[in-house]
Design brief:
Number of domains: 1
Oligomer: single chain
CATH class: Alpha Beta
Number of strands: 4
Largest sheet: 4 strands, mixed
CATH architecture: 2-Layer Sandwich
Shape: globular
Structural class: alpha+beta
């Protein structure tokens, strides 16, 4: 127990690994000329779903915010906006906050790419992304997540309009 108590504060000081994409000018430039995007959501942790946050609700909210932001949606587009929710629930003990959840919500634009050394190897790569980390009581997970999706989708809409003016 003593080891866990000493390690937890140290782990909080370790920076997370930087993302390959971001919201810098070069990342925003990768959005230039995109005609439309599809929307894809990763699976949610069943523990999060038990708290009332569903993929259906997240997808509907994200699609509405992208449309509000003047980003054209097309389910057959090869380029897509991906939403990932990673979660951890606080355990029991001195560090637990009534079973609160820590969530990392990442919104990224993925585009098809080919390796420069072998054009036959193709994949989808994140070319633009933003994320937010939040801590929420189980009863507040749904609203906190929806608010975060609103904020991240707004950032994408801003980046999109900057490089794709009408």
């Amino acid at each position: 127990m003593r080891c866990v108590t000493l390690l937890a504060p140290v782990l909080l000081l370790v920076p997370s690994a930087p993302s390959a994409a971001g919201d810098a000018p070069l990342d925003r430039a990768t959005l230039r000329g995109l005609k439309a995007v599809n929307v894809v959501l990763d699976q949610l942790d069943p523990e999060v779903e038990k708290q009332g946050l569903t993929r259906t609700d997240l997808q509907a909210r994200l699609e509405a915010r992208l449309k509000d932001g003047q980003i054209p949606l097309d389910p057959s587009a090869p380029d897509f906006v991906g939403l990932r929710v990673t979660s951890v629930r606080a355990g029991r003990g001195a560090l637990a906050l009534r079973g609160a959840f820590a969530l990392c919500i990442t919104l990224a634009v993925y585009q098809p790419v080919a390796l420069s050394r072998d054009q036959h190897v193709r994949t989808a790569a994140a070319t633009w992304d933003v994320e937010s980390v939040l801590m929420a009581d189980p009863k507040a997970i749904r609203q906190a997540s929806m608010d975060t999706v609103d904020e991240l989708a707004g950032r994408l809409a801003s980046a999109w309009r900057e490089v794709n003016p009408r």
